[in-house]
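Q: Convert this sequence to structure tokens.
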Amino acid sequence: MIFLSLKTYPEATGDNAIKLLTIVKRVTQETGVPIFPAAQAVDIYRITQELGIEVWAQHIDPIDPGRHFGWISPASVKQAGASGVVINHAEHPVSPTVIQTTITQARKYQLKTLVLCETSDLARQVSAWNPDFIGYEKGELIAGPVAMIDQEEANIRQLAGEISQPLIIGAGITTGEHVRKTLAAGGKGVILASAFVKAPDPRTKLMELAAPLAAG
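A:
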């Protein structure tokens, strides 16, 4: 599976999000590979209504509806059409306590969870809280020239054998070979952003990334 972090890139906001995710919908149909875009909260409803694809939120706050001005409630993204949420991205980190309470709140509102962890120790800790997926990526490698799977392959192999959740690998994932190596190391998928969003030909790039998953 592939998680696509759309972040707040102009290429993945508003009308451009619809254009970009139309490509995602077609590639999913052609390859059979599950591809989950994590969109900005304001785009979730439009994406689900216009494209009818599964979409995740980039963040929620562990609250119930009420007096929480400026926060993002699990209830709101669920009603907008999100089916899951990414928690603890390196660009929006939260404490372990908040990770745990956010998982609980997401489950309360029937949202699946992908918790991103910068260390294998945190991933093991989070595993006990039963998220749906655990991601392993180091913030300093995001959008950099070195792929997480190349730098951390041994740790990834070990972690994949120790946790019960599917392991998703991110940071520096840019090629089909990175995806292939991730699967060989025990990962079940990847998370990436600019390699797709800012690609000169997003469809060709996504097909390249999906090919090892389709073959496996």
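The chain has a mean pLDDT of 96.
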